[in-house]
Specification:
single chain, alpha/beta, 6-stranded parallel β-sheet, 11 helices, 12 strands
Amino acid sequence: MGLDALNPPKPDDIHETLLEFPDNRLLIDLCGEFDRNLAQIEHQMNVHILRRGNQLAVVGDGDARGQAAAVLQALYQRLEHGKQIEAGDIDGEIRMEHTTVRAEHGDQMELFKGGRVEIKTRKKLVEPRTDAQKAYVKSLFNHELAFGIGPAGTGKTYLAVAVGVNMFISGHVDRIILSRPAVEAGEKLGYLPGDMKDKVDPYMQPLYDALNDFLPGKQVEKLIAEKRIEIAPLAFMRGRTLANAFVVLDEAQNATTMQMKMFLTRLGEGSRMVITGDRSQVDLPRGVNSGLRDAESLLKDIDEIAFNYFTARDVVRHPLVGKIIDAYDAADPAAG
């Protein structure tokens, strides 16, 4: 099964690309309820899409029309492979299509050869949605130590945990260890109710959320009870050697220089380590250096360590998030 792009050689059709979809049921899914999927593509790509039986006509200027047609084809192929289409999948295809076009003009690094990058977990198949995310995921599989640096919403932690789960369920590592510095962002730990675990757990919640996206809840609970998955503050890592584990340090911009050195030197045989952070969101006291900045400066020339960078263009949350980040960066370029 496939798609046929029909371009009748008639002058009146010069601003139109006609796509034919053989399976009407998949075409319905492609269009979405009340054609909302088509509306999203129209809005983001500045084209018009008209339904004509089992065909879609894409109307617009040359570049936009061709890119929109390629996005529709890619989304239809997802459906042919039994995958669903959500708003984020559409946004991802649009981003990747724009990146491919820029790469042809030499403005972006070449996309990986060999097709899509997919991360299999127990609950879902995770696909990077931008070029930077693809490069990041590739580096996580190919390097024992990798950094992901960039603004919130770019998938740094989410993709790292997905790769960790993939390596765990495939037997490449025996444990998953997820950690964050327990640094207050305008709040004081001591004022929170409960014992130390109760005080610290809110800071770890994004890591729990990511895990629960990839593994059934009961399995997560069981693995935590067996200590095959650990979620703990950075301070709890001192004195340990982390062997045969996939280790993630999240919010690393809030680690001090000494904490970062301590964490990096925990790397043991058979382990993978990922450090993620956003240099613009440092919550350390004034005058205390960020260990993420220092590590980036000190380790940048070590070939075995991968540094991956994200920008507002890689934000995969609400589109407004990217615009908000751009506005703040424009007001304070040094924070980026």
